[in-house]
Design goal:
The chain is of the alpha/beta class. The protein contains 7 helices and 11 strands.
């Protein structure tokens, strides 16, 4: 496919701001089925912001012709899509999932949705954040590539597009690894890939006029029947208060009392 016809979809997820130093404390629901999300502020997942930025940069280099922002969830997900549009995405795709079903939506169903959209849109490069900061599953990109039977470049810290080939420098435990992928492919963004831009006020206003298409999972042939059942969600145990000691001898004595030495 010539580059001037190439579409670039980017998956963006909406997460709660519960891992920010200025955010609310996570509270478990009284029935132990999950965490309280009512009244909690949400924003675009930081890794997804990096994926959007990379897609927009590829478009600015004229390596892709269109950036499509995709999000799955309730009506509020359109706010996240608008953020991506303000960053430079051309149009949005909202896969509408009712709030009740969204609570049990897993990476398995999201991956099937993204794979179906990739086939429907005729794309050959799909960018995602490597994981969402609320559940830290780190599964969607890998499973999407499996459903599509496409090569994948996960934890990308550098992406170079050259014709029908993609070079991805990725972070591994021992350092950096470089892989060369034949398009179509799936790439997941790591923190060092880029620094996302701030959406300017003019672009925020323009984003309000950009198109967001709404589809349902059933339109894509995807069933949302849960594959995993949450048995119980519990608060972590409270940490015991520490003990101050005056000397090394006191420290050794305390460690012996507790069975540490």
């Amino acid at each position: 496919m010539p580059w001037w016809r190439r579409k670039q979809p980017v998956a963006v997820s909406r997460v709660s701001k519960t891992k920010s130093p200025f955010s609310e404390t996570v509270r478990v629901k009284p029935d132990k089925t999950g965490v309280v999300t009512d009244g909690v502020k949400h924003s675009m997942n930081p890794f997804c912001e990096i994926a959007v930025e990379e897609a927009v940069r590829l478009k600015e280099k004229k390596l892709v012709s269109e950036v499509v922002a995709v999000s799955c969830g309730p009506q509020q997900c359109q706010e996240t899509i608008r953020t991506a549009l303000a960053m430079g995405a051309d149009r949005g795709l909202h896969v509408e999932v009712p709030a009740k079903e969204y609570e049990s939506l897993s990476p398995f169903q999201v991956s099937k949705i993204l794979a179906a959209l990739a086939k429907k849109e005729g794309v050959n490069l799909l960018l995602l954040g490597k994981q969402a900061i609320d559940d830290d599953c780190n599964q969607t990109g890998q499973m999407t590539a499996a459903f599509l039977d496409w090569p994948q470049g996960t934890f990308a810290s550098q992406v170079t597009l050259d014709g029908d080939w993609l070079k991805v420098e990725r972070e591994v435990d021992g350092g950096l690894e470089t892989v060369r992928l034949k398009l179509p492919a799936v790439v997941t963004a790591d923190l060092r890939l880029n620094e996302p831009r701030y959406a300017t006020l003019p672009n925020i206003m323009k984003a309000k006029k950009k198109k967001i298409e709404v589809v349902k999972p059933s339109d894509l042939g995807v069933e949302l029947t849960p594959r995993v059942t949450i048995v119980s969600v519990e608060d972590p145990p409270q940490r015991k208060a520490g003990v101050k000691v005056e000397t090394v001898e006191d420290l050794v004595a305390k460690l012996r009392e507790s069975g540490r030495i």
